[in-house]
Amino acid sequence: RSPGLCAVIHYLVRGQLGWFGLTVACVVPGYAAQLLSILWFKEDGHPPSRWLLVLHVLQLGLWKRYWDVLRTVAKAGGSARAREALTQQGDVCVLRLLEALLQTLPHLLLQAYVVVAVDSAGFVPGVSAGLSLLSLAWALVSYSRFACLLKPGHVCPPAAAILCLLLWRTGMLGTRVLALVLFARLYSFWVFAVAGVHWLLMSFWLVAQQTNIVAQPCRWRLFNCLVGAVYIFCYINVRPGPSKHRVAVFYAVSTHLFGI
Fold this sequence. Notes:
Layout (H helix, E strand, L loop, with lengths): L1 H12 L3 H9 L5 H13 L6 H8 L3 H15 L3 H40 L4 H28 L8 H29 L2 H19 L8 H14 L13 H14 L3
Helix pairs in contact: 1-2, 1-7, 3-4, 3-6, 5-6, 6-7, 6-8, 7-8, 8-9, 9-10
């Protein structure tokens, strides 16, 4: 939370109320992950207490889930505990990825635009953007690591593989964000047209793949639209089985057609 908080204080002290309001607004979508976390606690048979609700209001609910994972791992003495720890880890990885996409990504785009187009010497927005980039990349790496653990016969990836994956995600996201910010600086609102075309193509592509992760038709369409928006910035595998061909198509379209 510190990068966003530092940016909020920075703009408030300098009297830049416009950027202050936009930075605060980036925090609001993150409550979707907190709300989903409360609902999952309730579905798991743990009615949320007043203290738990306060933690989620302060956007510390995921930290509570991380603490639960560490406590379960420390007490793990059998396969049942190990499966419980894996389930808890999966919940927090999905929630953290959702929070990163809804909250950290908009904050990253906003601070990167401030650094590139408004205040190139701004230290606080630059540091805030850099830390947000690392946070988003780590959320994607954590999700990929958990997906790897779910595969039969797979073990935990080594630290070197995690580091390489983190560097790859950071570089990929950094170049995407920089390309969009530079395009927005040069062509203003035309960036929404480019991103919109990218989003539509990716959404139609997901529909053509018949992803069956969501059963209900209306929720299935909404899911494809949401993932299509995520595909503007990065690829997330939402289907079981080998994904190298889908990744190749994604990067071919993103790189050669849009240049981002």
